[in-house]
Amino acid sequence: VANTLEGNTEEDNYWRTNYNTTQYYTQGYDYDTDYRSAYDYGYRARGHFNGASDFESVEPSLRTDWEQFKGNSRLTWDEARLAARDAWYRIK
User: Fold this and answer.
1) DSSP string over 32-59
2) Which of 16, 62, 78, 90 is the most buried (most CB within 10 A)?
3) Residue 37's pLDDT band (boundaries 50, 70, 90)?
4) Residue 28 to residue 85: CA distance in whole angstroms
């Protein structure tokens, strides 16, 4: 659980507080249902692809797997991508 947002209260709280101030936030979507899984996906991916220095190099793989990972999120990959990218780069 340590490599998930569930295992990192500080990161989870950061995104919970800030998700709706981002340029990609869509009115009517909420953190727990929609955005949390996108941030968690980027957070996990950073750990999984620890040799990759940039999000863009692994993004095709992430795009492919988003539908299986997203759970109840209503975000398409194009909507979730920037949130996942933000989480990736936040945890250097």
Assistant:
1) IIIIHHHHHHHHHHHHHTTT---HHHHH
2) 62
3) very high
4) 21
What is the token pair recorded at 5? Answer: 């947002």
Q: Helix-strand-coil percent breakdown of the chain, rounded to 5?
A: 70, 0, 30
Burial 16-45 (b: 16+ CB within 10 A, else e): beebeeeebbeeeeebeebbbbbbbbbbbb
The pTM for the full model equals: 0.91
Q: How many C-beta atoms lie closer than 10 Å to residue 66's C-beta?
A: 21
Q: Are 55 and 88 in contact (CB under 8 A)?
A: yes
